[in-house]
Amino acid sequence: MKKLLKYGCAVLALVLVFDLCLTALNFGQAEAAGENPYSDVPDGAWYSDDTLWCYENNIMSGVGDGRFDPDAPMNRAMLVTVLYRAEGTPAVTDAPTFPDVSAGQWYFDAVAWAAKNGVVDGYADGNFGPTDRLTREQAVTILWRYAEKPDAGTSTGFADESEIAGYALSAVAWAKENDVVGGVGNNQFAPKDGITRAQAAAILARLLRGGQDEPAPSAGPSEPAETDGNGVLVVYFSATDNTRRVAQTIAETLGADIFELVPTEPYTSADLDWTDPNSRVSREHNDASLRNVALVNAVPENWDNYGTVFVGYPIWWGGAAWPVNGFVTANDFTGKTVIPFCTSSSSGMGSSGAGLAALAGEGDWQDGRRFQSGASETTVTEWVASLDLTPAVPADPTAPTAPTTPTEPEDGTSVVYFTSDISSEGMLAVYKALGWTPTGDVAVKLSTGEPPASNYLRPELIEGVVKEVNGTIVECNTAYGGSRSETAMHYQVAEDHGFTAIANVDILDADGSMELPVDGEGADTVLSSNLVGSHFADYDSYVVLSHFKGHAMAGFGGAIKNISIGLGSKEGKCLIHTGGRSHTSPWGGDQTAFTESMAEAGKSVSDYLGEGERIIYISVLNNISIDCDCNGNPAEPDIHDIGILASTDPVAIDQAAYDLCKAAEGSESLMQRIDRQNGLHTLEHAEEIGLGSRTYTLTDIDRQ
Ligand SMILES: Cc1cc2nc3c(=O)[nH]c(=O)nc-3n(C[C@H](O)[C@H](O)[C@H](O)COP(=O)(O)O)c2cc1C
């Protein structure tokens, strides 16, 4: 409490309020001091003392089931609620004017109180954003306002001050001066980073009882453990946090020290816009002389103490992001084992590690590992375990060990195989992972792509699989205008796009339609039958090659769209689009009926082919525009290429493709389109009628 006195009267009032709350409130049954009620707050974790202090003093309670959920993000409503409870939940009379906060929501009273007392203002558009992630600058501002805005000037002294919003400058200056919230290492404040529940507990505990530094996971290097030159250090550069997360997991798993490489001029999102030829990264990429990025600190303290050094970076244009170069050239790696790791959207590690080894000149550089941008903690800890490095601090013997990924699901859910290798070899490998053998004549269904510039799957990408199955490429005419609405023109497009050069091509509805029954397996269906091209039955087995991307009407197009609309004759397509209402026009149907009809048409195809036994699916996640390949001039993709999936289940493969896209950087535009068209309803209905399962196991064949 002594420390709080220096905040002045306003903070003293805050302290008194909190003190009052400590005796007045009883949110949970605080246990005897020192007892840890949380299964997920290990003793010795950097946040354990503060979390327990908050618990014992009823400042923050757990999330139920004996858990605190330390890594969960705090949102804006949560912090306001903590403060409101600290105030003793006074009655509120005035409703807040934020359109996104309404009576009955759990945070309504707290936000009303906070707005009335000037603790929160809301956004410029009038909303409060209750469930928005709470950023560091927002958290500090809320606490500063709660403390009645003590005067602290506007100079924070942080190297990234220019990134701090104007409204937050005084708050950050105050927080720094009074040790309420420190930096994250290397003199950075990281204003836009989110706050986790563990960090919030640390800040609140510090504010109320004073005294401790904020040991945020992203903090700079801590005091090295007693190592005798055998210590482990994790060094990383990360522009958008993906590599940071992996680095933190490695460091936490091994009890290692961590050191972030921070450019003196950090990269903004505009700087990182690789689609803009004039952005900073593009200019640096095009001109090697610009790639000497100055670092706040390139030399870790106590370098000699470390025998093993992990070096992490994002992949930029297929290589290691160049801000790591300054670190590699500034240090002597003689006698050290160096383990590179990187994150990327789809590219492999390539020669990035070898390139850094050459730059270093010394050290025993290992092959290292590339992770998907959103790699799970389990994936990282499994890899670390496979390295057989002894943790610098003893691991908790009671901690659960990471599960290994099963190659076959134990619960009957579908398997989706994945490779990040978007090449003919990669496609062949992921196909072979299915262990499926076609029988009889084999059709390879794909979209021939609308000219002039659609993102159809290129012949050189699919050639390996087409030849492996000795397949005939099959397609149907479109129901709208364009270059593929008549058979002769369609064959011409197939030739122009290079498909006739690798296989025979058959336009299945050149001679009309054939009817397949729809069986909803007890569920109501929109369609009773489905019209596919009449050559459909000429083939015994189907390999469905889909390009996963957005679609203006369906939201997205993947495997199910390919075997429904894609195999439909013109008449069949019109019936699917209109939920059975029109045989001649694809326009004007009900959206729900359309999405359900796609699932039902797909089911009819799968049923016909031995109830799914004679059909498999391969989906390519590249050139992921919001527009389909039926659009000759699609929008530029916002998402990087991801990889290739294969499955015997069309629902699982579409769900997996959706999930991977959703997790990818830049997915907002695609997700908006899918949401707007209620695209996921196709999968919901497909699962309901028994076409497949939305629950799946993703097996990464690159790791086997
Ligand atoms: C300038 C730039 C270039 C990139 N180039 C590639 C690339 O060639 N291949 C790839 O798969 N991902 C590429 N990415 C995506 C990043 O590698 C990926 O998002 C990574 O996880 C980012 O890590 P970070 O969040 O630690 O910065 C690029 C990203 C940027 C900003």
Annotation keywords:
Rossmann fold; 8-stranded mixed beta sheet; 3 domains; 19 strands; alpha/beta; 704 residues; binds flavin mononucleotide; 22 helices; 7-stranded mixed beta sheet; 13% strand
Can you describe this structure in just a few lines?
This protein has 704 residues and is of the alpha/beta class. It has an eight-stranded mixed β-sheet, with helices on both faces.
Fold blueprint:
Blueprint: H1 2-5, H2 9-24, H3 48-56, H4 76-86, H5 108-116, H6 136-146, H7 169-177, H8 197-209, E1 231-236, H9 242-254, E2 257-260, H10 280-286, E3 306-316, E4 319-320, H11 325-330, E5 337-344, H12 352-360, E6 364-365, E7 369-372, H13 377-387, E8 414-419, H14 424-432, E9 442-445, H15 459-468, E10 472-475, H16 487-496, E11 505-507, E12 513-517, E13 529-533, E14 541-547, E15 549-551, E16 555-557, H17 559-563, H18 570-577, H19 591-608, E17 615-621, E18 643-647, H20 650-663, H21 668-676, H22 680-688, E19 696-700
Parallel strand pairs: 1-2, 1-3, 3-5, 5-6, 5-7, 8-19, 9-10, 9-14, 10-11, 14-17
Antiparallel strand pairs: 3-4, 8-18, 12-13, 15-16, 17-18
Helix pairs in contact: 3-8, 4-5, 4-6, 6-7, 9-13, 14-15, 19-22
Flavin mononucleotide is lined by residues 238-244, 272, 274, 281, 314-318, 343-347, 373, 640, 665.
Explain how this protein is built:
This protein has 704 residues and is α/β, with parallel strands linked by helices. It is built from 22 helices and 19 strands. It has an 8-stranded mixed beta sheet with strand order 11-10-9-14-17-18-8-19, sandwiched between helices. Strands 1, 2, 3, 4, 5, 6 and 7 form a 7-stranded mixed beta sheet that branches. The model is unreliable at 1-33, 211-227 and 391-411 (pLDDT under 50). Bound molecules: flavin mononucleotide (FMN). Flavin mononucleotide (FMN) binds next to helix 9, strand 3 and strand 5.
